[in-house]
Specification:
CATH superfamily of one domain: Histidine kinase-like ATPase, C-terminal domain
Radius of gyration: 22 Å
Number of strands: 5
Strand order of the largest sheet: 1-2-3-5-4
Distance between the termini: 67 Å
Strand content: 15-25%
CATH class of one domain: Alpha Beta
Structural class: alpha+beta
Helix content: 10-25%
CATH topology of one domain: Heat Shock Protein 90
């Protein structure tokens, strides 16, 4: 049927698809992150989480063509993830207990871990036969003491981060990124 003179044709019926489901932003989402400069994983408070953090670190650095940083970055990832595993509690529902992220910033790689557990990172003085307690000393050495933490009262827990310089880009600064 054609429209009568002076009448506009009815608009074509558009097929609407439901909006894409999007997860709400988490405590480590960084809207300033450039595409290809950020990777993350939600982890549970179980020993296998440290292996997942190391694997994500290794695979991400390979994808970014930064494999020279892999050994130090994996050691840092392992220590931070292990500390988070020890501090985190099993969350209710589908919330993560730990969020592990690696972020390429101008001149450095930053490894960031949020966990929902109480407490704060503290250096300990382990005995010579102790099997634990050296993680922050290792991170101190590998990062030249370039790490820190802050509490996250709104979501519970804390964020711990550690940065290693990217020798290929070292010396360049990015004043738009806080340290």
């Amino acid at each position: 049927m054609t429209p009568a003179a002076g009448q506009a044709a009815a608009p074509a019926r558009a097929t609407l698809s439901p909006p894409a489901r999007r997860q709400p932003p988490g405590p480590l989402d960084d809207p300033r992150a450039r595409p290809g400069s950020y990777a993350r994983a939600d982890l549970g408070p179980e020993p296998a989480a440290a292996a997942k953090a190391r694997r994500l670190t290794r695979d991400t650095l390979a994808r970014w063509d930064m494999s020279a940083l892999t050994d130090d970055a994996q050691a840092i990832a392992s220590e931070l993830a292990t500390n988070a595993i020890n501090a985190a509690t099993r969350p209710p529902g589908t919330l993560p207990a730990i969020i592990f992220a690696i972020h390429r910033r101008h001149g450095e790689i930053r490894i960031i871990v949020w966990d929902n557990g109480p407490g704060k990172p503290e250096h300990t003085a382990p005995g010579p036969d102790a099997e634990t307690g050296r993680g922050l000393a290792i991170i101190d050495t590998l990062t030249d003491r370039n790490w820190g933490w802050w509490p996250t009262p709104a979501s519970g827990g804390k964020v711990v981060w550690a940065a290693i310089p990217d020798p290929a880009r070292d010396g360049a600064s990015d004043s738009t990124q806080p340290r």
